[in-house]
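It is worth pausing here to work through a concrete case rather than discussing structure prediction in the abstract. The textbook approach is simple: state the sequence, then state the predicted structure, then interpret. We follow exactly that order.
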Amino acid sequence: MIKSSVLGYPRIGEDREWKRALEAFWSGKLEESEFHRELQEIRLNHLRKQQEKGVDLIPVNDFSYYDHVLDTATMFGIIPKRFSYEGGVVPLSVYYGIARGTKDAAASEMTKWFNTNYHYIVPELEGVSPALTENKPLLAYREAKEKLGIEGKPVIVGPLTFLKLSKGYSKSETDSWLGKLLPLYVQLLQELEAEGVQWVQIDEPILVTKLSADDVQHLKSIYETFAAAVPNLNIMLQTYFESVAYYKEIVSLPVTGIGLDFVHGFSGNISSIKEVGFPSDKILGAGIIDGRGIWKASLREKLKVIEALSEFVTNDRLIVQSSCSLLHVPVTVRNETKLLSELRNALAFADEKLGELVLLAKAVSSGGTGVTAELEECDRVLQALEHSSERNRKEIQHAVADISGQQPKRSVPFSERHLAQQKRWQLPIFPTTTIGSFPQSAEVRKARQLWRKGDWDNEQYADFIREQIDIWIKLQEEIGLDVLVHGEFERTDMVEFFGEKLAGFAFTQFGWVQSYGSRCVKPPIIFGDVAFEEAMTVEETKYAQSKTERPVKGMLTGPITIMNWSFVREDISREQIAYQLAYALRQEVEALEEAGIGMIQVDEPAVREGLPLKEEDQANYLAWAVKAFRMTTCTVRDTTQIHTHMCYCEFHDMIDSIEEMDADVISIETSRSHGELIHSFELNTYKLGIGLGVYDIHSPRIPRVEEMTSMIERALRVLDPKLFWINPDCGLKTRGYQETVESLRNMVEATQIARAKHSLKV
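Step two, the predicted structure:
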């Protein structure tokens, strides 16, 4: 009898009740005991759903108070020394301090979880002596069993993945650190075994990335240790997001089951199975249903995949499961009442994917009897979307084919543009600016709500936005910034705003997913051919420019970021989607320039998020990503300065591609990684304008002038002062008024110190 399983379920709730509980607790509106009670009820409700759907193996310990990697670190007592911690169960004050920072201690670095839009807190190992503070998987298992009668499957981040995603140790210390961690994992697993746990899911997504021979040897040592320590515990060694490297060695490990991704890693994993086979003594966890996409699965195609696998694995050794945790998709389609029927019918979010898994298991177990109607309905809704007018805009398809066949580039090289732009703008050394957005206060959110509900007409809302622009243009001038922004008060989200104004997009009412901590995003759905319809940003930007003599940047989101932060159609390639977006955004860039805006920022914070995990696929992705950016920006005049912004701290392996984008100025995150990005410039030369973010906007703390001065000085040891800009890490939308103003004042003061020191040298 084939079984169904899920690798993880979304934390946030159908209406983001998890987010509201966290933020109420942080603001002091919710007592800790009540906070724990609310989160328990949310957690149990998620388990009930999976139980009612009929899922056989239900995950526990996939729920988190912030982030599952942070949970693992704190469970093992891995607490950075700058936080006050004296051992034992980690209090919430320390847990959230690591994630968000405190008055006296900076937050730990946050970075993306492989190639997704989820971000985890990076564990810091330096100077730490780990110890098991509490067995969180055991507590989660007991809760599910006692409260709901569920025989849960505890989920644990595996030792190799945890170690390789951590920082603060050298490669030569790997053996030493495994020697510290393995006894803790063994203790944890032995306690689970003693409790009577049947299955444990140990996540090792690092196995789909490039591994060294040492990694493989460490992997073998880890799982041989586990096999000896817990011989009666069924371990599912779980991978996802791609096909595994070293397949033969991995399937030889002494574990009960191996979980493989047959969606995003289909080609590599199926080829490995056909070439090597699959061990007759193991169970295959087949990731058949896409845990990252939102489209209804073609059930007939999924049954063909299972049929292909059945040549190597009998049904009693096969578990049908999601390709990864459902953390990456919204909770349910059920509440989406305003979508086009042809689109809504073709969607499957987390709850619907549970149904697909159970249906597939039933279909295989019954030999296909009793599911004919479901298969036919699935075919019907998928074909209806495929043939819709939204997916067949021939004029867009032809235009994009024409321009994508060309090699886009600016009319003159950067060295000449830089001189022309300096002559036009007359900026001081180390120009200061911000990334684009200013605080979205309760007043701003209320005004938008009144407008969306129809209580305010368009003119009332436009007047309000102009008032906010007036306030912040004046503030920026008083603070002393050199290049201003209008503040983006009219925008809910940097992707959603543009999607609402372009053809080919759809928007859910409740399609939220977690990005980091309590930060949730509602990705647009690109379901048709993308087309420019009218100017999107000109009105507000032109108004802001009319209120100041200083330059105001036009602010756009770039094609790759819009694509990577949206749920996209699957019937054409991502490359073609990127070119459609670039063609539409090029028309907006040209409209801004025509309106007199001479600095235009095209943000691409998510370029790296789309980078394939397999090295052999990365060059092709970067080539068309760069091409899409240049398609967007290449038609402007020499004196028009193109800016871009990126949010990540690994730069060295992409420096050539980023230079190829040929933006006049790039701003990039560096503060949360504690200046480590600057090391990339100690090894590589960057010849275009650049602004390294000098303070972390994700933390509520106000950075000191001395901190920013230190960051500036280190950067200037390796970067050309004539090309150096000073700015925060990212947009300031989530920050409060007072902290924003004080932080920017400190940033300008740090800039003035740097100017006094360096102006005579330039």
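Step three, interpretation. The longest strand covers residues 525-532. The mean pLDDT is 94.
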